[in-house]
Write a structure and sequence with these properties.
Helix content: 10-25%
Number of strands: 9
Largest sheet: 6 strands, mixed
Strand order of the largest sheet: 4-5-2-3-9-8
CATH class: Mainly Beta
Order of helices and strands: EHEEEEHEEEE
Structural class: mainly beta
Length: 120
């Protein structure tokens, strides 16, 4: 599978800053999906040093990205950006597969995967 997600330059710049700040320059960026949240699925992003056998690995803007095989079809075509505003900055995730999202924007569901919705 080709690059499952796209990191914008702004997101990559912010991730590199965070890696440097936490001494994680050699780490992978793991992006995944897990059950939960008010709409059924939640995104997860974090640094990791181990590549698992069933991970997709690719590189964008000098960042090595890992995505597990179960999250990959749910995330296909997703764009991760970083926006700065007067209220501070934050990552935005634009997933074309999401058919419903919650008000906070961190939980969603797809036509094929309802996840495990929780109370908000």
């Amino acid at each position: 599978m080709n690059d499952v997600i796209t990191l914008t330059e702004a997101a990559a710049f912010q991730i590199k800053d965070m890696m440097k700040e936490h001494g994680e320059e050699e780490a992978y960026l793991r992006v995944g999906v897990k059950g939960g949240g008010c709409s059924g699925l939640s995104y997860g992003m974090g640094f990791e040093h181990e590549r698992h056998e069933d991970d997709y690995e690719f590189e964008q803007h000098g960042i090595k990205v890992l995505i597990d095989k179960e999250s990959a079809p749910i995330l296909k075509g997703t764009v991760i950006d970083y926006k700065q505003s007067l209220m501070g900055g934050g990552f935005t995730i634009n997933n074309p597969n999401a058919i419903a999202t919650c008000g906070c924007g961190s939980s969603f569901r797809t036509a094929a995967n309802a996840g495990t919705p929780e109370e908000c």
